[in-house]
Inverse folding.
């Protein structure tokens, strides 16, 4: 469990800002339980449904994760996972021009992410908090273990995310990553005794 008082103090100070500059870093869930989390598959055909879900929920903070097919050697995002409340939107192979609709629906929402290029689709003005820096740039699995005592299976990191159909393991992996970021954010917020 996280014991570092200085780390908690840093987090409390960062939460005072609506927009946290992208250069400030912030430092996954062991099992995906479908009975506790609703997963919505969003593609280009039902992107408006995903936008409506976000607009209806009006989450203050969401956890995100991005997956790219490294074999494609492209900057194109294959999966954007967005976790909020008890839901995860899995945006699969949504082209940038349609992805903008989702990004615009999150313009007033704080994005919790775990380093890397996960924020690349979002504008620089997007409220954000990078939780990886609170963990000395350790992996998401290591950070999750520090907070909750369980590691996350990362064996599907290099999966073929660009495939038209995803395996159950890939789906679970993408869901867990976004949920883990959101759970770590909530854990840090609780430990810092900071209330939004």
């Amino acid at each position: 469990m996280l014991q570092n008082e200085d780390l908690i103090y840093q987090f409390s100070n960062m939460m005072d800002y609506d927009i946290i500059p992208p250069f400030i870093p912030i430092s996954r869930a062991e099992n995906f339980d479908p009975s506790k989390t609703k997963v919505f598959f969003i593609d280009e055909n039902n992107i408006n449904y995903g936008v409506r879900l976000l607009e209806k929920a009006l989450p203050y903070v969401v956890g995100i994760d991005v997956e790219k097919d490294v074999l494609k050697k492209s900057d194109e995002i294959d999966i954007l996972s967005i976790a909020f409340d008890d839901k995860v939107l899995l945006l699969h192979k949504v082209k940038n021009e349609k992805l903008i609709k989702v990004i615009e629906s999150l313009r007033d929402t704080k994005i919790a992410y775990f380093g890397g290029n996960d924020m690349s689709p979002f504008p620089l003005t997007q409220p954000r908090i990078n939780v990886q820096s609170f963990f000395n740039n350790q992996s998401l699995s290591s950070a999750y273990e520090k907070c909750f005592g369980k590691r996350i299976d990362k064996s599907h990191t290099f999966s073929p995310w660009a495939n038209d159909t995803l395996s159950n393991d890939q789906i679970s992996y993408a869901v867990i990553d976004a949920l883990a970021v959101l759970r770590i954010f909530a854990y840090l917020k609780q430990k810092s005794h900071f209330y939004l």
